[in-house]
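note to self — DONT lose this again. spent like an hour looking for the file last time. sequence + predicted structure for the chain T wanted, 136 res
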Amino acid sequence: MKNPFTVCIIDDDKIHQYTTTMLLEKNKVRKNIINFSDGQQAIDFMLNHKDDSQKLPNVILLDINMPVMDGWQFMEAFRKLKSKLRKKISIYMVSSSNDPADTSRAKKINEIADYLVKPFRSQDIDQVLNKLNRAV
């Protein structure tokens, strides 16, 4: 990818944020990485920058279980917000849960590109970035 892109990690686990950031940086693709500890922080950020496509993320890695606003609540808020955003954003639901109910629920939400189980492997990040490269 020639142009830099932005990856948003929404997860209250600082260790997961750090390891995901390291995997992204290892990929050597030009990118910006922004982190939020809950979904409300991310929604507020997107509302504040809805007209600035440079600041909005290209892809979101969204945890399910977080305080304040969890991943499912974030998706409800995002669905209401997405028509106001000047950028298409790919969302990947992430969780340490491999519960089939969570996977099934995520697959029913059109805005969710895929469901990834933590901890990530390098191949998981490669898959997300390859899909993003094809979409851009």
